[in-house]
Write a structure and sequence with these properties.
Blueprint: H1 7-18, H2 22-31, E1 36-37, H3 38-45, H4 49-61, E2 65-70, E3 73-78, H5 84-90
Antiparallel strand pairs: 1-3, 2-3
């Protein structure tokens, strides 16, 4: 038997999956202070660039971060809280 979840529950599940990793939680914490370049995040966390890129992509697909390109650099920031649930999650 399959239980259909309401759209809000699916969205919440996606957000929680996005933060279900210590590195992604650390990235969220860094971005809570403002926008950062991917290379800055890599430097602070001391992790390999492909590893950080993978986590940032995961966070982006989970709807938790957004990015913008400026030349060769990509800058990341927390996604605007579309609802109270995401706002509370970021807090």
């Amino acid at each position: 038997m399959r239980i259909d979840m309401r759209p809000g529950v699916r969205e919440l599940e996606t957000h929680f999956k996005g933060v279900a990793d210590a590195t992604r939680l650390r990235i969220i914490n860094l971005l809570s202070r403002g926008e950062l370049c991917g290379c800055d995040i890599q430097g602070v966390l001391g992790a390999a660039q492909p590893n950080i890129s993978r986590h940032l992509t995961y966070l982006k697909h989970a709807g938790l971060v957004i990015d913008r390109r400026e030349g060769f650099r990509v800058f990341y920031r927390l996604a605007p809280a579309k609802n109270e649930t995401l706002k509370n999650l970021f807090e």
